[in-house]
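Late entry, written up from scratch paper. The run itself happened at the end of the previous shift, but nothing got recorded in the book at the time, so transcribing now.
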Amino acid sequence: MIADQVDKYMDLIEKSLKQIQDRKALIQRFQLDLLRTRELHRYFNYDQFMELANKNLIKILILRGLPPLIKSPHYHVSLPWATFASNSFSVVKIRGCDLGPEINSKFPCLRVLSLTFVKLDEEIIDSLLANCPLLETLTLQLEYYDDYCAHELCNLAKIKLRNLPKLKKATIGGVDKMEIESLDHIQVIVLHCKSGPYDIGDEKLINLVCCDSIKELRLYSMFRKQYIQDLVAKLPNLETLTYHILSRKGL
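Output as recorded:
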């Protein structure tokens, strides 16, 4: 039975961790590639894995679920509450999972946060970022591409980045608008906008307020020439501008 195999596997992992603890060695990295067969999820207890990880105060957490498939129904693993029970993480990278309805954990040590193919809304994002005072690198990829077509995982119109005093790099994909306010240390912005050339009517599609530290800007979308010129004019220390002409229908 699959359930018996999982139990044996968990026992093996727990014994291995016990041996490491007896030697007073710390586990720095915990990576879990989640099962790819839908039927197996009935037998799999993620709580057990996360409890083992949290006991060791790990620094790096990587969880990888199913990538989105156009010809198959989306199946995202719902992460247990135990996933965010630890406040020792410095790096969290999650792909193809659901975070759950409430994210109230604090991440005082978190420096890198990457959420790829994760269903998010403004409330979840605000809650997460409000508890990451040391965050330096942020990646939010909310859409995926197949045969040069973009597919949305959630309808997120806007992202606001503020009160992140240490943030240096932000990579955002799958939104219509981004607002960045008073981030003194941010140097790199990578933005994949959903809007195409006929969608742009708001002059604040990318709203940068007091962000003179930006040195590199990468844009993936379709913007009017004048719009880009006006945007660059607001960035006195910009050294590198990369512009990839993309639309929701392809290159």
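Residues 136-251 form one domain.
(Scratch paper discarded after transcription.)
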